[in-house]
Specification:
Blueprint: E1 2-10, H1 13-43, H2 49-53, H3 55-62, H4 71-92, E2 107-110, E3 117-120, E4 123-126, E5 130-135, E6 143-152, E7 155-163, E8 175-180, E9 184-188, E10 193-195, H5 199-202, H6 204-216, H7 222-256, E11 259-263, H8 267-273, H9 275-280, H10 282-296, E12 299-303, E13 329-331, E14 338-340, H11 341-357, E15 386-388
Parallel strand pairs: 8-11, 11-12, 12-15
Antiparallel strand pairs: 1-5, 1-7, 2-6, 3-4, 4-5, 6-7, 8-9, 9-10, 13-14
Helix pairs in contact: 1-4, 6-7, 7-10
Length: 389
């Protein structure tokens, strides 16, 4: 399986200018490929990734600044354009729109180790840049395969894609259902609640002050650039705190349970409807849980989220009555059971997962009947998740 390790880079002023020049070349090539896609769409002729990969050699011959970027870097730009184009076509299909033009590129990569980059002692040697200082806050694991260099709020980071061997954890013979929420990050079927620090709410005064400072500054001035950098760093800090907290929660869940059932929610769509969903990090929680389960040999099953809040976990009766979010207690009209709404939903999620696993809670194990263990990411890109309706 593949796992990514991200480290902070500390380039010198000359190296920072080289990195920015590489980004400018990638941005120019990116926009050139998007223009070709738009022209081909207007003319009604097909244009795919293979044809645009041939543009790499043409671009390097026609543009003098193209020599600053490695050929593999430009090939990855073409692959990114193809992926983004397909995604935008799929999103704009319902509205009949046309994908837009991507103006800015904030990262570039290399697809093969020791071909454009390699770790030279405690520094990272990049094509056209030199040896960059790296803060190795943890050791690299496995075999380094790829590299992605990104700029975030004026700071540089290197993400190494490494191929590692999964290390299964000892069995706990426990399984759990997880219901995601906005007041609490996660509610478990055993009644435990994982609190959600309100990261964006805690930083909203600071962010509001920085936004006002940015609005008052004149674009193009040094004050505007400084205000923009401060706002970007504050937003990156909020995202980093959220990711760190969720990663620790996921690590504890994977250590305590062999099988985990999770609602298959469309976090992106829900985040557009409610800002609290975005601040809670539902999509991040799901991605980290799948990746961690794959690395440790656990089983994560995604179950259908419909009606989980209106189904009784004791008798299985589904209530057709709409329950507002202000109603926090679930009461079954058939069996009379009543309890916390979120805990009831988590138990229903666990029951749906047990139907897939074909076992009861007392028979929990890492190899349930009807479910699959985590497999290498190269064979199953979504990790060890299984979707069942």
């Amino acid at each position: 399986m593949f796992r990514y390790f991200t480290y902070r880079l500390y380039p010198s002023k000359r190296q920072a200018r080289c990195l920015e020049a590489t980004l400018e070349v990638c941005c120019a090539f990116n926009n050139r490929l998007v223009d070709q896609r738009l022209a081909a769409r207007r003319e009604g002729r097909p244009l795919g990734l293979a044809a645009q990969l041939r543009e790499v050699a043409v671009f390097r011959r026609s543009e003098a600044a193209a020599v600053l970027a490695h050929s593999h870097t430009l090939q990855l730009v073409a692959a990114d354009v193809d992926r983004a184009w397909r995604t935008r076509l799929r999103q704009a299909k319902g509205a009949g729109g046309v994908p837009g033009r991507k103006q800015w590129v904030q990262s570039f990569g290399f697809k093969q180790a020791r071909n454009g980059f390699h770790v030279d002692g405690r520094r990272l040697r990049l094509f056209g840049v030199g040896r960059i200082a790296v803060r190795w806050h943890r050791p690299l694991q496995g075999t380094v395969k790829t590299l992605r260099v990104a700029r975030k709020a004026g700071r540089w980071f290197a993400g190494f894609g490494c191929e590692i061997v999964p290390t299964p954890r000892p069995l706990t013979c426990r399984e759990v259902g997880i219901d995601l929420g906005t007041d609490d990050l996660a509610i478990l079927s055993d009644g435990e609640r994982v609190p959600r620090p309100r990261w964006a709410l805690a930083a909203q005064d600071r962010l509001a002050a920085l936004r006002r400072r940015l609005r008052r500054a004149n674009p193009g001035t040094a004050g505007y650039s400084k205000a923009r950098a401060l706002l970007g760093r504050a937003m990156v800090r909020v995202a980093a705190r959220r990711r760190d907290y969720i990663a620790k929660v996921v690590a504890r869940l994977v250590a305590d349970y062999d099988r985990l059932a999770l609602e298959d929610l469309d976090a992106d769509r829900l985040a557009r409807m409610r800002a609290s969903v975005s601040d809670a990090g539902w999509g991040l929680f799901r991605r980290l849980l799948l990746a961690k389960a794959e690395a440790t040999g656990r089983t994560v099953t995604l179950v259908r989220a419909a009606w989980t809040s209106q189904t009784c976990s004791a008798c299985g009766r589904r209530s057709r009555r709409w329950m507002p979010l202000s109603q926090r207690t679930f009461a079954c009209e058939r069996c009379g059971w009543s309890g916390d709404r979120d805990v009831n939903a988590a138990r229903v999620v666990l029951h749906l997962g047990q139907q897939v696993w074909g076992s009861s809670a007392s028979q929990a194990g890492p190899q349930p009947v009807g479910a699959k263990e985590a497999e290498p990411r190269s064979r199953r890109p979504v990790g060890c998740a299984e979707r069942h309706s």
